[in-house]
């Protein structure tokens, strides 16, 4: 193509934003024209991220809708909760395409959002307009749209692990338990004692037990797939590593199925989708096997003793769980191959 | 006391053995009189473990029942599966007290052992004689005995997290799921690609899904507590850290109970037991909070949305999950205070 | 003994303070009677450090000299720079023994302190009174004193590695280079981006190059030992681990010596000192081999090609580099065996 | 271009080999036509490296010169010492281009090789033919050649840190000390206790003190640059992280120079070279800032107190220190832009 799509990134100084920069710098159809930060406007982005020295020499722009309109065609929002609520409607009204990585437009119900996020929900009109961009499940709805709500990291790993079964009716929706573990980068660059090195190194812990705001997001998508309301148990843990999410999911089958049938169901469901890989019998993915990449790898084990199915699903939380899926959504929006600019190999070891 | 109990440690060059050395060196009533290794006999133990330089200058003894009898009153076995099967009967016949840290005498059924361990089971007569030393649950049976089978690391964390409820009949025994995570030292000092640094650093994975040999050990104890056969789902994961186990346990209640009632049940069950600490409402333990110590810390969360209880239980796998509980069992056998030589503070940070 | 010495700890909520708590709880002659914090007074210390639950149930006291005098015989100061400058004189005037873990009284010259610390120096009268408690080198001066300035973590590792040679005149004092590496706990519990987990995990870096405030402290002690002014090169690095310091030290010999002679010099210098261990030829210590303990282990290598000597010295920065040496100083002050309460084995693995 | 260059990789199952796969899969001008392993021939490479599932589905070929000739134009050797000694001459005689990542052809003197590597040296005729491919220093010699000896990881970091000064004669060649620290992946995938997770996690150590085989490689290049024989002190350490090398280098200046002059010298020396980045005054690079990339970042500090210069140089040992520089050498050999296929951003965090 002759002209590249011009992209702006709001929240460029967070981990999601800086990963978008890494990915978009390698995207053949996109040019980064504005990196934006409310806190550090005016400073070169490489001041806070020296790995970008001589790679991206831009200074950070302030958050200014007019300026964004003059510089960009599409805007990525990698911002804390509450920012997109206000900003996305303005960007859309200005005629921009918006891909929102925050949680502000993921829940269709404002009440549910308020209960779990403890923030005022977004305008219902724009909530309705947002397309939930879980690419391998709802990707068809993304094509040609201008406002995408990018799924959360935990929901991406957990939903890709459950979607084929949730859509069949083979499982008891009351039985779903997801025990999820995340690398520390999921907590972002904001300082807190929880992710102070000496506290979380050589440590493993559960947090927000039965209270994590990604719970209703997973339930909303599962309910839609199952055609009935799903309420589930969801637990989050911190792992002393930077990147990676592994979700171990437990479900009871409504009636007996073989593990081979279930694996075949998964393979058919994800046929033709480059970024989901189903492991063979007896093999389970490790987070490192998708590190730095946009893959989601899934393993399955049916226990004949209990009749319960265990699903192991892994992603890189910063790529497939955030910036990578956002670029994948951009590809789908624009009608490009979904792997454009994302077809790199995981970094190993 | 004037005379110290003389202790021998078989398997001194493994992580369990070397931790027994650390603990027994600090025990006021015990003297280490023989450190034993089948592979490195003759060499100073500090050759393989330089941290013991000038602390324990002994050379390793070979495995020789007569020699052990001449040097020791009690023998700890920190050996791979299959060694104790042969050795413990001989040591007992020689009049020695035996505390077996391996899995060889934990399962009462030889058939179940063979199914999960893929080894020939021990002599039934000695199997019957072995007391399962889960101190806070079955500790009364340990007093005055001469042959203790020390619980596994995962079972210790999981069973201490479940025992109070398993004994009440409040929970549905078919609903039990334990999602357990362990530091890498649990895999021992034997070399393997799985625990090669560059493979498991910055990595998280599930292993032996629905196949871990600790499953029947947990089920056996739960069945005994519940008075009915319990079959459960048990998953093990590796965490990129050296020490620590966290078991996240999910159970369905048979009938509604308040979280306060359940917490009170736990506090009463463990009353007077120094090494189990129940957290207050909304607080969950981290593995680092018991690091290097014999504590087991437990947090509880009842989810009103699903009626399901989540239990978080943590231990140091090398201490409470192995050497520490073995010393605690020694204390109980000998009629000493169970905390003798174990009353040290977790190392933090 | 019938009555225990009563100890207060100012700065109990920092890592140095909380390690003092761990060590003093195990000390046979000492009782902790006050844990003090300027920021969290009134709260139970276990609120911020749950590993202390049911072990130390005290609430934090405010910093109040009268209160300290009523509760304690000896005061440990584990405070940021500048606090001890003001507080220690008052505590001494109140008749208390003081062991200061901060840097405020380590440099005899107020000007040098001001240059490197960018703080106002302490009163010269009290500066003169402070004894620099590098136990194995200047320990004789500690006996019977009431005011000890506890050495810094880097200086302890580096000086114990250099002291025998510095005192001989065998080395060229202009040639000394110490390349030191520290675990992250040395940076304390205060939040900063430098020690944010996702920044320093899987990372290694140099910091404060040619600017670290421990430089003049090392030079002052070396100058005293050498009997001439020593100016040296000192570099500090952060290692992605919690505890441990390794200092690699390079010196040129004035005239040829054999490595065996040098090793023998070290062994004689440290004869009878439990906490310094000299490795045999070809062996070098790892930080993990002293982890959690008060040992300093030293290895030596003389390169015949260059005539340069390389010294490798390791400590646990929180123990021998802070709280452990402080307790050792207390033991020396009180005329107790220097290893009292400190004779525990490193935690391995 | 219409036809891609066909590449074979011998030693595909080591970390260097698998990183070559990652890089060459993204190279626009190259096609991987054979992945070769002496130990696992016949098996799919993804069996041992599941991150390659559905990305590289090839089976491993045996080492067979005829087969290689039929499938490839260029051969990368990522093999243990001693393999290339035998294999490279055969491959060259078969008309293939060879890039050798092992140490077999780096030292021009067979005697020096034998002294440090304890292996029989290669045929002098082929030794003479090998071009030492330190791209930013000797890259001009690589153009159009068919046999490149790729520099070692430590030498790359250290030499790029020293080359500008070594070529000027500003420094005393007797004063050079390089204190280098490496992530664990440098030790390869072969199992050993040294890099067993529980041993090296939360640990830092020096190894092969004054004995590392990269010493003469650095000296050879420095001697060539300086025009006189250089003998230096070189120490290697292991850091508990997977990737990254940091070399802290100390040199004495022959006569006074300002830090600004030295920095300017470095900037001019590396002008136009994309992969070397010189930091501004007071800034020092961290290994994470080049993680996963082909960059070498360098910081400088001249200490006015000692007149000594400290240089901090960082690389990713698997990329710039092995596979990345090998691809860069391929680019130079072929006359392509040296950054072809390598212009990706470091992965952060």
From TrEMBL, chains A, B, C, D:
The reaction(s) this protein catalyses: N-acetyl-L-glutamate 5-semialdehyde + phosphate + NADP(+) = N-acetyl-L-glutamyl 5-phosphate + NADPH + H(+)
Role summary: Catalyzes the NADPH-dependent reduction of N-acetyl-5-glutamyl phosphate to yield N-acetyl-L-glutamate 5-semialdehyde.
Similarity section: Belongs to the NAGSA dehydrogenase family. Type 1 subfamily.
EC number assigned by the record: 1.2.1.38
Organism annotation: Paenibacillus tianmuensis
GO cellular component, as recorded: cytoplasm
Gene3D superfamilies reported for this sequence: Dihydrodipicolinate Reductase, domain 2, NAD(P)-binding Rossmann-like Domain
Main location group: cytoplasm
GO biological process, one term: L-arginine biosynthetic process
Every Semialdehyde dehydrogenase NAD-binding domain range: 6-145
Lineage of the organism: Bacteria, Bacillati, Bacillota, Bacilli, Bacillales
Superkingdom of source: Bacteria
Protein name: N-acetyl-gamma-glutamyl-phosphate reductase
Gene label: argC
Residue numbers annotated as active site: 153
UniProt entry keywords in alphabetical sequence: Amino-acid biosynthesis, Arginine biosynthesis, Cytoplasm, NADP, Oxidoreductase
Subcellular location: Cytoplasm
């Amino acid at each position: 193509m002759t002209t590249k799509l011009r992209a702006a990134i709001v929240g460029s100084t967070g981990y999601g934003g800086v990963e978008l920069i890494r990915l978009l710098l390698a995207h053949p159809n996109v040019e980064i024209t504005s990196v934006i930060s409310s806190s550090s406007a005016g400073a070169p982005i490489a001041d806070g991220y020296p790995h970008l020295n001589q790679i991206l020499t831009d200074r950070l722009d302030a958050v200014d809708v007019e300026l964004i309109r003059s510089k960009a065609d599409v805007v990525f929002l990698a911002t804390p909760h509450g920012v997109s609520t206000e900003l996305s409607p303005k960007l859309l009204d200005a005629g921009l395409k918006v891909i929102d990585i925050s949680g502000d437009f993921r829940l269709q119900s404002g009440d549910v959002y308020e209960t779990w996020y403890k923030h005022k929900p977004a305008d219902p009109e724009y909530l309705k307009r947002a397309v939930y961009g879980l690419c391998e499940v709802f990707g068809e709805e993304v094509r040609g749209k201008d406002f995408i709500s990018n799924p959360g990291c935990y929901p991406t790993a957990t939903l890709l692990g459950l979607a084929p079964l949730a859509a069949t009716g083979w499982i008891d929706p009351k039985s779903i338990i997801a025990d999820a573990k995340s690398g520390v980068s999921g907590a972002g660059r904001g300082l807190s004692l929880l992710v102070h090195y000496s506290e979380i190194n050589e440590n493993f812990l559960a947090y927000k037990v039965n209270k994590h705001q990604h719970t209703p997001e997973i339930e909303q998508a599962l309910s839609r797939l199952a055609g009935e309301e799903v309420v589930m148990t969801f637990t989050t843990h911190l792992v002393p590593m930077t990147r990676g999410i592994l979700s171990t999911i437990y479900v009871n089958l409504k009636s007996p199925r073989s593990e081979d049938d279930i694996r075949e169901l998964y393979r058919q469901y994800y046929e033709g989708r480059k970024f989901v890989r189903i492991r063979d019998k007896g093999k389970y993915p490790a987070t490192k096997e998708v590190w730095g990449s946009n893959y989601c790898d899934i393993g399955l084990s049916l226990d004949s003793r209990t009749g319960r199915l265990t699903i192991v699903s892994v992603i890189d939380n910063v790529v497939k769980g955030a910036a990578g899926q956002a670029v994948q959504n951009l590809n789908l929006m624009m009608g490009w191959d979904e792997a454009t600019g994302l077809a790199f190999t995981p970094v190993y070891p």
